[in-house]
Amino acid sequence: VVGSLYAYLNYRSTQKRLLFVAASIVLPVFANWLRAYGIVMLGHLTDNRLAAGADHLIYGWVFFGIIILALFWIGSRWQEDEEEAPAMPVGSARSSGVRTGGLGWLAVAVVAVGLWVPVLGHLERQGEQGPVRFAALEGQGAWQRTEAGELPPWSPSYSGMRDTFRSTWRAGSVPVGVYIGYYRDQGPGRELINSENRVLISKDPVWRMTAAGPVRVQLGDQAQAWRTLEMASEHARMVVWYAYWIGGRWTTSDHLAKVYLALSRLRGEGDDSAVVMLHAPQGQGGHAGTIAALEDFAREMGGPLQAMLDRTANP
Question: pTM value?
Fold first, then answer.
């Protein structure tokens, strides 16, 4: 809307107006992606001393203001002078001083805003599905539920979720835990993609990270790109595999997750999403035994796990 108003006030040709409006749409979208990436990296590089709380909003608005000012400054380089009004014959009707074309542009902007507000409201209401009721996760093959006490005490540093699901499974000597942080009707402070959400915080009093990186997981009959994090405490070691689940899609990218969330909202499917973690301790079989247990669980229980998430989102 601001770009449309600026184009109307500073240009006379339709081509320049359309080009500036297009630039005022594309540039802020790209700048917002750059802002989000910069804030995440700033928090990472400063160990969350900066851009970890409300200050990231200040940085974001300052950056956004700079981008908008730069857009207007560049646009002013091609500003067109006001067209001189032709001499009016004596006795002819005086012009009101308002161009018909300008009124048309202003009317389009007003109508666009008027239509977009109820559309946004409708899309927001699509996600209002009430509390989360987890569907049952059925055992598959030799994997059966067991006691939660068989796993070392640990919880990821995630917040704002609508509900959580935890269960422990065993098919051999190594138990495997399932953690699901489920998000619905997301907003500030209760969103899946948040710079403060971590599998393990850097200053955890019990656990320390020993390794991290990507991992290829055979989830049922599909190979998915997940991430792995290995941690150790004074008395135990554990491996965690994790990824985001958004409307049936898996990803480990924060940016791609935001795209999937936006697409789900635009399709009227709400914003149901989750962080899913599989974790297993290191036992007598060592690191290889832990990885083997996680691989077997993902292969055997991947299908039921995805079906459980689908039924939770669409009961």
Answer: 0.65
